[in-house]
């Protein structure tokens, strides 16, 4: 692992070379490296927390000067209750995951003695750009090693001391393993991000871990594929047959359980015929949780009759394109399922959207027609999460239309290659005509 | 389907809207549309061939003036023996393929009454940019409709008349089906490619069908993912234990069966210890087929002793980075498997590479360590092809490291979405602590 002196290109080249070695290591060697990283961090706890304290000191000063937000300072603190332990446990959790490398996903007998196999393999070199949270380094290094990928890490400048301390330990730990040291590359020089984003010959996938702004910046400034989503504008369609109590609890969970999350609800579409039947209980429950409703004319007028004591504001068109990330909810009346689907497909961010209805038919139609990574029937949008899906880990959530979509587990860090094992076969021996052979194309798996 | 008047943005928006309808149609509706396209083209044969004749006339004139290559003129000719019939048969072949939409690839019981499903679905809007061959329109339109994707087609200007005639027929045919007319968008205005490549909000995947230059241009000028490969620099490593006769026939097939193909052999790496044992028979066979060998010092010196009658030229370093696409082969001596692997990973294009050896151990090591879409043991590199792999069709060959790699069938035009069917579950009900539920994460599929 190189430290501050590494140029972007050197780091990328070294990572690429290391990725070729890493790709050939058995699971045991990759798991042993994770154990070594765990042991190393465990032993170096005091040293790392001391480095982290220095970062914190500077950050607190910056916050006092109004140059940094309090929430960033808080995210920086590795000494916070449970954080260190969670970081270490995360490494062991990743180690225990099923090996994603070398899975045969297709096997076809092209002809006798000529077999085709599709086998999972690492993508190559990952570039992970993250902001304040220093524990992400350990998490991402573990995921990379487990999946056989090399990784280039670029952290936020606020966590530089913690970052350097942790990566020194990881580097020393890898020295004793079969995983090449260059497999985890650290870049700490400033302003290196544009250079890294330009290296599409050496870097195969960028994973931003941070704010929407970071993701948006990266997506706009690289040709390398980016795994992530810049926006999470999730909607729920409340259909007339939905049970009011169920609807209220699902919508409250979707909106209020963690309003700043990307899978939180931002727009509620209410079927016109549900305005005076199901919607009142929902509005009441949201209001009780402190949610501000921004309503269109029809829903506002209806609420003024059914829930006269509620105060709601009038929505503007821009509210239906806004990711509030707070206790504000845009409400819009739609006449039909079709209108709801069209609204979501044109206004949403293709992240996660739900329908609340007693009708299986309406639900299935909604789930087929809404063009989003997650489409739910009678469940909170906040289930969109790798841990909740049972993936054991989450690399990120993607709204891409290729490769990986929705919560991404280790699988998202894998691609495949085709192997053919033959006995000297030539393509000119196959085809039509005298003496030519025909392909068998017998599917073995 | 819009004709010449459609702007790039209009076409993309209309295609996106159509894609949302198309995604909900059952296989029967998509297959019926293919039947309608087939019938329409069948009926309009004379009209289309007349349009094609007008294109041909202009092209022949341009060729006579030295402005167009003869091979392009030849590719343009739809009236060439078998071409029309192949084009029509291709539509029916695609129709008969297994439906790629709606396959459940994962099913997990998150909790009782809360099931997660991962289901294949179309990607959305494809942009297909192709050069002269007008029959590609029918092929691509079929693949798009079959896979539930909308497509924007941009053909080369030399085939404009054929292109307009064919797409008029497709458009009229779709009118009678459930597939929205906007699902296949034709763009014929000139200079529209840069505008299209800019529409990453509406277009999900670009598929270039044409020269390496076209692919390279597109890859360098868009943020939209591109399915394809700009180069096919394939290598074979000839190991000392390979049977000389087998080696000669595989190398001759890889190099000479279709030298202009992307999966043809360009570099032969010979193990030093094989120079005087296996290599002479190989060199002899290649020479007999008219292949020019560009040899490094060691292989040249060896051949001057073993095959004194052969004329070979001396290689330059640049020959090992050249895709000759002709009967020229670069030959390099390497000391070991490791050196061969490193040469291929650093000089090749990650397309298809092979090892010829009697050693299973060497072969498996080669196939794991070479970072290419296809890695073969004792088989011709020219097996890298969707039809030969048994995919029934080939959308393209990809050297990307995400989504699709190697020959790509219909699967490469698919992504997935996650569906959750619940009964009003909320995320706050799960977790640790009193009264909280635990996820079951029971894998059902």
UniProtKB/TrEMBL annotation, chains A, B:
Keyword check for Oxidoreductase: yes
GO function terms (MF aspect): glutamate-5-semialdehyde dehydrogenase activity; NADP binding
InterPro entries given in the database record: Ald_DH/histidinol_DH, Ald_DH_C, Ald_DH_N, Aldehyde_DH_dom, G-glutamylP_reductase_CS, Glu-5-SA_DH, GPR_dom
Entry superkingdom: Eukaryota
Protein's pathway: Amino-acid biosynthesis; L-proline biosynthesis; L-glutamate 5-semialdehyde from L-glutamate: step 2/2
One family name in Pfam for this protein: Aldedh
SUPFAM superfamilies linked to this entry: ALDH-like
EC number(s) from the headed UniProt entry: 1.2.1.41
Biological process according to GO: amino acid biosynthetic process
This protein's UniProt keywords: Amino-acid biosynthesis, NADP, Oxidoreductase, Proline biosynthesis
KW rRNA-binding (keyword) present: no
Reaction(s) catalysed by this chain's protein: L-glutamate 5-semialdehyde + phosphate + NADP(+) = L-glutamyl 5-phosphate + NADPH + H(+)
All copies of domain Aldehyde dehydrogenase, residue ranges: 4-289
Function as written in the Swiss-Prot or TrEMBL entry: Catalyzes the NADPH dependent reduction of L-gamma-glutamyl 5-phosphate into L-glutamate 5-semialdehyde and phosphate. The product spontaneously undergoes cyclization to form 1-pyrroline-5-carboxylate.
NCBIfam families the record matches: PRK00197.1, proA
HAMAP family: ProA (MF_00412)
Family membership: Belongs to the gamma-glutamyl phosphate reductase family.
Entry protein name: glutamate-5-semialdehyde dehydrogenase
Upper taxonomic lineage: Eukaryota, Fungi, Dikarya, Ascomycota, Pezizomycotina
